[in-house]
Specification:
Blueprint (H helix, E strand, L loop, with lengths): L1 H21 L6 H21 L5 H23 L6 H19 L3
Length: about 100
């Protein structure tokens, strides 16, 4: 169950970053509120997952999900570049996240 919570926490981390972007420097109230809720939820779920998952592994996976998800959101919705070098490095992050999960019982 801890691994599921960690994955959901990572998704809320992406929602947090997306809401921050849409808040335009926290000037748009509904996106400011959604960023606070998403960020709080993400941290809370991470804290629950860390009751069972080793801290280094959990934090690494959580930040990896957030990083990859944020890059994907940027590419899909904000017309950020999709060059091969960026995709290779995102793939390296994904490989690291998978590797951490595989070596963590």
């Amino acid at each position: 169950m801890a691994w599921v919570l960690l994955g959901i926490a990572g998704i809320f981390e992406v929602l947090f970053v997306l809401s921050m972007k849409l808040s335009e420097g926290f000037t748009k109230t509904k996106y400011f509120v959604s960023s606070v809720i998403a960020g709080g939820t993400s941290f809370y779920l991470l804290s629950l997952a860390l009751l069972e998952v080793p801290v280094g592994t959990g934090y690494g996976i959580w930040t990896g999900i957030g990083a990859v998800g944020s890059v994907a959101v940027g590419m899909l919705f904000f017309k950020e570049s999709k060059n091969i070098r960026k995709l290779v490095f995102v793939g390296m992050i994904v490989s690291g996240v998978i590797g951490l999960r595989l070596v963590s019982g």
